[in-house]
From TrEMBL:
Keywords from the UniProt entry: Oxidoreductase
Residues of the GFO/IDH/MocA-like oxidoreductase domain: 129-248
Keyword Oxidoreductase: yes
Entries under Pfam families matching the protein: GFO_IDH_MocA, GFO_IDH_MocA_C3
Family: Belongs to the Gfo/Idh/MocA family.
Record domain Gfo/Idh/MocA-like oxidoreductase N-terminal: where: 2-119
Protein name: Gfo/Idh/MocA family oxidoreductase
Provenance organism: Gordonia tangerina
Keyword Transferase attributed: no
């Protein structure tokens, strides 16, 4: 049994809490949060304990830490876990400030502590099979990749204000997927965006709809379209065109029943929200983290990979502002693992 402490009792924290409480290989030690009452309530519901900061990082009682706190606290918790010598599973991003994220990765890497960043889309069943097929050469050389990320509704403006913008908050998952699928680090990026929902988004310099183009060293092109609002549910899909064929991880409806009538076929619709679509990936990511701890298997996505996705997001956000194609500069940190 791996003894795991959870940091963060908000929405994503509660998702991880349930997975920890139900996992047969985990002893869920407890949960801590800046809001002690919220942590206590979640702990009661999950049959565990509320923890103080000191208890979270007590290596005599805890084997690993899962960080699901607010974004601005991720780096601090990563550093504290490294000092305590505790392996860590952390929600993205490392930090919204790239320089602070780079420094944090350097410090954590120097500690030698195993750390995984939760780019959970990699653990989607269909995306994983697409990745396997592409990387084993089933469709030949990759030439064109299309990724779609369309949410059902605009998040609250107070969330938008602190999210870092669409490139860093939403599209960054698909920057990571693009690297993972192709096995390449994009050279440059061009991003264009618009606001179709709430004009107040302009206050934050953000957009709700965007198209991003990445150019890969091989010449392959990647296009990512992201939208914060649709009229038909949550839509996520990937298509890869190769020299010998094409593979698609399609949008996933809530069911597979089709109703046939005169002149039309009516099928089941899409999930109402993003979480309903991706919920299983959180458990699958936890399984991977535990396997890495208990069997010595490779861990990932790594801190180095998370930094690369963040560097792409920074260049894309810059392109949105300037209207220019921007070169992507990747940070260098001592011994940071950067496998795909």
């Amino acid at each position: 049994m791996v003894r795991i402490a959870l940091v963060g009792a908000g929405f994503i924290g509660s998702v991880h809490a349930r997975n920890l409480a139900e996992h047969p290989e985990v002893r869920f030690v407890g949960v801590g949060d800046i809001d002690a009452a919220r942590a206590g309530d979640l702990a009661v519901r999950m049959g565990t304990h509320r923890l103080t900061d000191a208890e979270i990082y007590d290596s005599d009682q805890v084997d690993a830490v899962l960080i699901a706190s607010s974004t601005d606290t991720h780096a601090d918790h990563l550093r504290r876990a490294a000092v305590a010598g505790l392996p860590t599973f952390c929600e993205k991003p490392i930090d919204l400030d790239l320089a602070h994220a780079i420094d944090t990765v350097a410090r954590v890497t120097a500690s030698g502590v195993a750390t995984m960043v939760d780019f959970n889309r990699r653990f989607d069943r269909d995306h994983s099979e697409l990745h396997r097929s592409v990387r084993t050469g089933e469709i030949g050389g990759v030439e064109l990749v299309q990724l779609t990320s369309r949410g059902p509704s605009l998040p609250p403006l107070d969330y938008i204000a602190t999210s870092g913008g669409q490139m860093r908050d939403q599209t960054v998952h698909f920057f990571d997927l693009a690297r993972w699928i192709t096995g390449e680090d994009p050279i440059d990026v061009f991003a264009a965006g618009s606001v179709f929902t709430d004009p107040r988004m302009a206050q934050f310099g953000d957009v709700d709809t965007s198209v991003v183009t990445l150019r890969m060293p091989s010449g392959a092109l990647v296009q990512i379209d992201s939208a914060r609002r649709t009229g038909y549910g949550y839509d996520e899909r990937i298509e890869v065109l190769g020299s010998d064929g094409m593979i698609e991880s399609g949008c996933r409806p809530i069911g597979s029943v089709s109703r046939y009538g005169p002149g039309r076929i009516v099928g089941d619709g899409l999930h109402a929200g993003w979480f309903e679509r991706v919920a299983p990936t959180y458990r699958a990511a936890l399984d991977h983290f535990l396997a890495a701890l208990t069997t010595g298997a490779d861990i990932g996505p790594t801190l180095g990979e998370a930094l690369k996705a963040q560097a792409i997001a920074e260049a894309a956000a810059r392109s949105l502002r300037t209207g220019n194609r921007e070169t992507i500069t990747y940070p260098v940190t001592p011994s940071a693992v950067t496998t795909h």
